[in-house]
Design a protein that fits this description.
CATH superfamily of the largest domain: SPOUT methyltransferase, trefoil knot domain
Strand order of the largest sheet: 2-1-6-5-7
Distance between the termini: 34 Å
Order of helices and strands: EHHEEEHEHEHEHEEHH
CATH architecture of the largest domain: 3-Layer(aba) Sandwich
Shape: elongated
CATH topology of the largest domain: Alpha/beta knot
Strand content: 15-25%
Number of domains: 2
């Protein structure tokens, strides 16, 4: 799967893509990353990509000309891309959206900065507008990296054991309706806190039952909204 990320801060993006699961995905041939600085498509001495908004107001707005050039050029460098615009106005990203995007052969993600995009950038392309939550970031880079991380770990062969994704919170085993059960590892006791006896019993049916009950209990306590029909 190919990821094209358009940003003003390629070093920031590349630093994250070179670590952990995104790096493993690339090493195993499951993912390819291409990061483009869209300032390279701006003209003039200062290569300006933003300007003051018509009608007044605070901040600066990303301009049409360099963004259209960058998007069209990068689009033409490979197979048809699914276009993702990182914006707080988009649909909220969740595990179901991650699974949906994992089936795309190529994603092209545009990271905004400043006060946003000239509206014609939205109008000029068939965007899938996505938000990672109801809060304000300085730009779309962190949102793009969240999406990359969530998507690449779903690609075949990336984690080595594909079953490891099944029982996570919001994983397909829970169909996004329950949080993950508590997990423990060695030692069996630490500072007076003990691993539940059932997990040390070797009785797989009882362990499965306990995990199911704990997942339901934790969801009821922390995210009861997930259990609503």
């Amino acid at each position: 799967m190919r990821f094209d990320i358009l940003t003003l801060f390629p070093a920031m993006v590349n630093a994250c893509l070179s670590e952990s699961i995104p790096r493993i995905a690339a090493e195993r041939g499951a993912a390819e990353y291409r990061v483009t600085n869209f300032r390279d498509y701006a003209t003039g001495v200062h290569q300006s990509v933003d300007d003051r908004p018509y009608g007044g107001g605070p901040g600066m707005v990303l301009k049409c000309e360099p963004l259209f050039k960058a998007i069209r050029d990068v689009q033409g460098q490979g197979p048809q891309a699914h276009l993702v615009l990182l914006t707080p106005q988009g649909r909220v990203f969740n595990q179901a959206v991650a699974r949906e995007l994992a089936h795309k052969p190529r994603l092209l993600m545009l990271c905004g900065r400043y006060e946003g995009f000239d509206e014609r950038i939205r109008q000029g392309f068939a965007w899938d507008e996505i938000s990672i939550g109801d809060f304000v970031l300085s730009g779309g880079e962190l949102a793009a990296l969240v999406i990359v991380d969530a998507v690449v770990r779903l690609l075949p062969g990336v984690l080595g054991d594909d079953a490891s994704t099944l029982e996570e919170s919001f994983g397909p085993a829970f169909e996004g309706r329950r949080l993950e059960y508590p997990q423990y590892t060695r030692p069996p006791e630490f500072e007076g806190m003990k691993v539940p006896d059932v997990l040390l019993s070797g009785h797989h049916a009882e362990i499965a039952k306990w995990r199911h009950e704990q997942a339901l209990k934790r969801t009821q306590q922390r995210r009861p909204d997930l259990l609503q029909p």
